[in-house]
Amino acid sequence: MAGEKDLDLVEIAPQAKPPVCKIIDFGKFKYEQQKREKLQKKNQVVSVLKEIRFHPNTDVHDFDFKTKHAINFLEEGNKVKGTVMFKGREMAYTDLGRELLKRFIEKTSEVARVEVPIKLEGRNMSVILVPIAKKSKKQKK
Asked: Which one, out of 39, 46, 105, 116, has a CA that is 20 to 30 A from the CA of 29?
């Protein structure tokens, strides 16, 4: 029957008793399947982790400037990791780093929530923020 209609006989479920076959144009089937996979890939949301680095003695202007960048990243739908890096004797002032990250969380609280709380890992203290589930700039376009 498939030969008469100039189509292909495709086995759909070989495990079934009796096996299930379908008469279709296999080239067209493969093309539509690729189109569906491409569309699924296109609609997939990819989350990127951006890092903003501070030092315990980061000045107010620098802090505000970096925070604005973090807010832009969050609005685009990316995760942001705020990191305070300690050098040498700065390790004695980890409380300054903790206060800096608390201020960072406060400034970004309108667009983000904390995913991983503040923690000290070696010479770095970090926090990970995730955008609040609103439509990001990319989704609006």
From this structure: 46
The tally of domains found in the chain comes to: 2
**Domain span at residue 31?**
8-43
Both 72 and 133 in a single domain?
Answer: yes
How far is C-alpha 57 from the chain's CA centre? 30
Under the banding of pLDDT at 50, 70 and 90, the label for residue 134 is: low
Structure token pair of residue 13: 């479920």
Q: What ranges make up the beta strands (E) of 4-69?
A: 8-13, 20-24, 49-54
Same domain, 79 and 38: no
- φ, ψ of residue 49 to 5 degrees: the values are -100, 115
Q: Output the pTM of the full model.
A: 0.65
Percentage of the chain beyond pLDDT 70 is 94
Do 74 and 135 sit in the same domain of this protein?
Answer: yes
